[in-house]
Structure formats: C-alpha cells, structure tokens
Design goal:
heterodimer, A: 220 residues, elongated, B: 235 residues, Rossmann fold, six-stranded mixed β-sheet, four-stranded antiparallel β-sheet, binds adenosine-5'-diphosphate, binds magnesium ion
C-alpha cells in the first residue's frame, strides 16, 4: 500500500506510456506488415501473382531483420530514430525500433494466416472472374480474419516484451521503471508490481484476441 | 458452342515434364450435358480447368461461341469467366460468408447494384431449394446443401456454360441423384450447357446426352451416351 502511495502516479504513467508505445507500434507495424505479408503470399510461385525476384527480396529482408536480436536492433537504429523523431530517448522515439522489429514479424504472421486458406476457394474466386485485387480484398482477407485477429494478439504480446526492452534503454514505460527502480535502486517490490502489470496486459490482450477471433469465426 | 481443338497441356516440374492432355478435340453443342469420364489421373480436371483458363493450355485452342479464350487476358478474360460457371468436388464456398452472401458474391464482382443482386439471390435460393438456409453458414450445411449453394453461386451471372469437376464425388448416392436432378432441370429450364467431369459411369448414365472417354491424356472415344453404353456392354 505504502508502495502504491509512493509510486502510484509513476506506475500509472508507466502503464499509459507502455500501452501507448505498444498500440502505436502495433498500428504502424500492421500498416506496413499487412501489405508485406500479402505480397509474400501472392508473389510466391504458386500465388496469384508470381514474381520470383520480388518474393525473394522481400523474404530476405524479413529474415534479416527477424534474425537481429531486438536488443541489438534497438541500438542499431538509433541514428534512424534521431532522423525521424529528432531524439532517441523517450516513449515516442522507441516507437521507431519497435515498428522496425515488428514489421517482419507481422509480415510472417499475416503470411501464415493467408496461407491457411484453402486454395480451392481462391480458384473458385478466379473462376467467378475476380481480379487479383478483388481476391485479396474480398476473399483472402475476410476469409482469414479470425486467424489474422489471433495473429494480431500474438504480435501485440510480442510488442509488450519489446516495449519493455525499449524502456530499459531509455524508452520509458513499465520496462523503464523496472530497470530504474528495481535494478538500480533495489526496489524489488516495485519491480514485482511492474511485472504483475505486464502480465495483466498480456493476459488481457490474449483473452480479448481469442474472444474476438472466436466470435467472428463462422467455421464453428 | 464450345470447340476444343488440339488442346495440349504439359505440366513442368522439377521431376520433369508431364503430358496431362494430348491433342484433345471436343465439340460441345449448346444445350448438351456433356460428360467426360475417365480414371483418376487421366487428365479430366486439367481439361475442364483449361476451359475457363484456370490452367493455361500449352497448345491448342478453345473456342467459346467462336471466341478463343486462350487468347484472352485481363478484363476480357474475367468477363468471359463470368459466363462460365464452375462447381467443384469440395464446393469451395466462402466459409466466413453465409449462404445469401456466398450467392451474392459473384454479383458484386460483376458490379450489380446491391438491390438488384438481392432480388437475384432470392430467385437463385428458390431455384436450388434453399430459401430457408439464406442466413446459415456453410459449416452448418450438409454436403448436398453446400453443393446447391455452389450451384446457385455459379449460376448467379446467368452463365451459358456450367463446368462441373467431380461435383458429386463427395456426396452419398441419394444426394448425388438429387444434385444430378437439379443440374438436369437447370439444363432444361435455363438452357445452360453443362460439362460434367466424373469417374463414375452412373453419373454419365443419369444425365449426360453425350460423353467422351479420356485415358492417359487422350480422348479415346466420344459420342452419344446411349451408343457408348451399348459399346461397353458389347465388350
Ligand atoms: N499442377 C500440376 N503439376 C504437375 N502435375 C499435375 C498438376 N496437376 C495435375 N497434374 C498431373 O496431371 C495428371 C492429370 O491430373 P488431373 O487432370 O487432375 O486428373 P483427373 O482429374 O483425371 O484425376 C495427373 O497425373 C496429375 O498428377
Ligand atoms: Mg480430378
């Protein structure tokens, strides 16, 4: 209780900062990741618009970024962050590495959701005279929606972890608090509280994602 | 109405080339229920999928009312595909859309206004006897009901031709008969030419007026169903 009196406002601000970092970066990583994921599916040699070079380049970029440990990516993109945001510290600055780290992840999530789709459904759409764009927007995405939603909750949870790491190197949010108070000042209790808050955020995202996915899925 | 001339299809793969159709010639007349029968792997699906260019022929021509579909692409090809309905063994319905939305889908693609499309969907629901299932989702339907939805969907844009690739192979015998009855009544009432791919002689006997036999990529016999049955019985 005493702890909450003393640090309550810091914890609330940390939670808000974390949520802001997470949701803004989810938004931007989907903005870029959805087209990238779609491109990975449709330009595949068995896709609806085969384009080997495009597929290979995209796949390679995704794999390279994904194989860089996030903590290293965080530091590596500092110059870019400065260029875009003007500074490399603070909540907004941390959105840059978060988005860069999450885009390839989102691209693969979207790709795997779209690949689950029965190929026959796409053939039926072609036989009805759909254009490629119509197949993407009217068949592939709506038919994969329950799976895309589940993917989005996994992505968001991954970003909870990333955002805590970003916080540890000056990004703000709950990760920042855990490091600053828990690690440097031995405030173990405060660290525990930030952990509990992070776990609660993850649980909430998971439950919400599962609920929505189940609710909209007409397969069962 | 459909003239297939020297249609040849070679599949290229890492294991080498595979000749799936070898100089196939067929002449399908308006109003025919034309059967193509053969064993599994004979090339039946490849043949029917070439007719709407789901599969690109390696050589040969496919004339539909005199227009060669193998020369088409882009919007012209898509427009032509709307005049060729197709149904499949696995139905291939949109699982996240209900029956009504599934049937409406090709009308949206064809650019119908929503009101006109709704009215057309009602007609089609009636045609296939699924008025009471308009709001059901495919996952809740039996195989026969799913194929009825697929038929309604394939007929939505009033095609001249209906292509059926093993349309009854996933169905039990009783349901098969009811679907074949439906196809026959569509042929008679709407004048739609129907091409039926099957490995079952009883399907051909039930509704096809003409039939071609395909064996290892080649058409080995074709003619009136009655003549062909006599031929087999004579052997
Ligand atoms: N995409 C493909 N690539 C390579 N071979 C194929 C492909 N599709 C079909 N084949 C081969 O072509 C032959 C004919 O296939 P198909 O037309 O599906 O036969 P059917 O419908 O009569 O069972 C089969 O031997 C099959 O393995
Ligand atoms: Mg087949």
């Amino acid at each position: 209780m005493e702890l909450l009196n003393e640090y309550g406002s810091i914890l609330i601000k940390g939670t808000i900062d974390s949520l802001y970092m997470i949701f803004v970066s989810v938004f931007f990583s989907y903005l870029i990741g959805i087209p990238a994921g779609i491109a990975l599916v449709v330009t595949d040699e068995n896709g609806i618009m085969p384009a080997k070079t495009c597929y290979n380049i995209l796949g390679t970029i995704v794999n390279i970024v994904r194989s860089v440990p996030f903590i290293i990516l965080l530091i590596a993109v500092i110059p870019l962050t400065r260029l875009i945001v003007g500074t490399s510290i603070g909540v907004t600055a941390s959105i840059v590495p978060l988005v860069i780290g999450a885009v390839p992840f989102v691209a693969r999530m979207v790709e795997s959701s779209l690949r689950e789709l029965n190929k026959g459904i796409i053939e039926a759409a072609i036989s009805m005279g759909c254009s490629n764009m119509q197949i993407i927007t009217k068949v592939m995405i709506p038919e994969s929606m329950p799976s895309l939603i589940l993917g989005a909750s996994i992505t968001t949870i991954t970003l909870v972890g990333y955002s805590a790491m970003a916080g540890a190197v000056g990004g703000g949010g709950l990760g920042d608090i855990a490091i600053r108070y828990g690690y440097y000042r031995y405030e173990r209790d405060l660290m525990m509280v930030t952990i509990v808050l992070l776990v609660a955020i993850v649980q909430l995202i998971q439950i919400t994602g599962n609920r929505i996915s189940k609710k909209i899925n007409k397969l069962n | 109405m459909i003239k297939i001339q020297n249609l040849t299809k070679i599949y290229h793969s890492d294991h080498g080339d595979f000749l799936a159709l070898d100089h196939v010639n067929l002449d399908i007349k308006k109003g025919d229920i034309y059967g193509v029968i053969g064993l599994s792997g004979a090339g039946k699906s490849t043949l029917v999928r070439c007719i709407n260019l789901l599969e690109k022929p390696t050589a040969g021509n496919i004339l539909i009312d005199g227009e060669d579909i193998t020369l088409m692409n882009g919007p012209e090809l898509r427009k032509t595909r709307q005049s060729l309905g197709m149904i499949f063994q696995d139905f291939n319905l949109l699982m996240q859309k209900n029956v009504f939305q599934n049937i409406k889908f090709p009308l949206e693609i064809a650019g119908f206004d929503s009101k006109a499309a709704d009215a057309r969907v009602q007609e089609l629901l009636k045609l296939v006897g699924l008025e009471d299932k308009a709001n059901s989702y495919p996952a809740k339907l039996s195989g026969g009901q799913k194929q009825r939805v697929a038929i309604a969907r394939a007929l939505a844009n009033q095609p001249k031709v209906l292509l059926c690739d093993e349309a009854t192979s996933a169905l039990d015998p009783v349901t098969t008969l009811s679907i074949l009855e439906l196809l026959k009544s569509i042929n008679i009432r709407l004048g739609v030419t129907i091409i039926i791919i099957t490995h079952e002689m009883k399907v051909v006997e039930a509704i096809c007026n003409r039939v071609a036999v395909i064996e290892s990529a080649k058409i080995v016999k074709d003619g009136l169903t009655a003549d062909l049955i006599n031929h087999f019985e004579g052997e």
